[in-house]
From TrEMBL:
It comes from the Bacteria. Pfam families: ABC_tran. Residues 4-238 form the ABC transporter domain. This is Amino acid ABC transporter ATP-binding protein. It is found in: Cell membrane. CDD domains: ABC_HisP_GlnQ. Keywords: Amino-acid transport, ATP-binding, Cell membrane, Membrane, Nucleotide-binding, Transport. GO terms for molecular function: ABC-type amino acid transporter activity; ATP binding; ATP hydrolysis activity. GO terms for cellular component: plasma membrane. Belongs to the ABC transporter superfamily. It is a peripheral membrane protein. Gene3D superfamilies: P-loop containing nucleotide triphosphate hydrolases. Its main location: membrane.
Length: 242
């Protein structure tokens, strides 16, 4: 059974249809890159999977449960699917460790001691075990994004959605974040990433999805998508259409 099953999903903002019928099944352990031009609907698709946007049509199921829009279902969904954003969204007045503890305490309602143990373990997993007590402004952008990743992991999600998670970073800090993601992929985490890092998509992802004008225009294993793009739109996107 697919972990994430998307059937004929449509999403409109007012009169503008941004997703025009998306069908996509993602199996456990897949590492999926979503690529495409600005405005093609990549972020909107991720936000729909996480219930941050209410879909206008079609259906989305995660681990066999159909996504509904009531608060209880959304809470259950967000326990299963973590999301990491371009901006790290850490609370500046909380230490790295406290940032990782907070969601566990609020959403999972677990006690301080257990949350602290999990937070420590998750920070270690992203190479920041020594920085539990550091405040975000004492951490580099790459470190802050790694804290955000460990915060998502602390919820023990079945899948992680990543929305351009290296786009706000200085170039020299991109590698440390991508190597954490690469390790997660190697450990079998299901990942769906909107990314402009084509080399990463080629080297790490198991499937690449090219979105164009609100539709999945072309998809396949990276060697096919990058090595033998079929449609003029993808060829042009990859810089071969001229
Ligand atoms: N909340 C919103 N209200 C109205 N329009 C929106 C909203 N969110 C997104 N859109 C529009 O939907 C379209 C698709 O946006 P989306 O962010 O999904 O594209 P994208 O492929 O992720 O682009 P980018 O690479 O620039 O992030 C755009 O035209 C955008 O302006």
């Amino acid at each position: 059974m697919p972990l994430i099953e998307i059937e004929n999903v449509r999403k409109s903002f007012g009169a503008v249809e941004v997703l025009k019928g998306i069908d996509l099944a993602i199996e456990p352990g897949e590492v999926v890159a979503i690529i495409g031009k600005s405005g093609s609907g990549k972020t909107t698709l991720l936000r729909c999977i996480n219930g941050l946007e209410v879909i206008s049509g079609g259906s989305i199921s995660v681990a066999g449960t159909k996504l509904a829009s009531d608060e209880a279902s959304l809470r259950a969904l967000r326990l299963k699917v973590g999301m990491i954003f371009q901006q790290f969204n850490l609370f500046p007045h909380l230490t790295a460790g406290r940032n990782v503890m907070l969601a566990q305490k609020v959403v999972k309602k677990i006690g301080d001691r257990e949350a602290r143990e999990v937070a420590q373990a998750m920070l270690e997993r992203v190479g920041l075990g020594e920085r539990f007590d550091a405040y975000p402004d004492k951490l580099s952008g790459g470190q802050q994004q790694r804290v955000a990743i460990s915060r998502a992991l602390a919820m023990q999600p079945l899948a992680l959605l990543c929305d351009e998670i290296t786009s706000a970073l200085d170039p020299e800090l991109v590698g440390e974040v991508l190597s954490v993601v690469k390790e997660l992929a190697a450990e079998g985490m299901t990942l769906v990433m909107v990314t402009h890092e084509m080399r990463f998509a080629r080297d790490v992802c198991t499937r690449v999805i090219f979105m164009h004008d609100g539709r999945i225009h072309e998809q396949g294993p990276p060697e096919q998508v990058f090595g033998a793009p079929q449609t003029p739109e993808l060829q042009q996107f990859l810089g071969r259409g001229h």
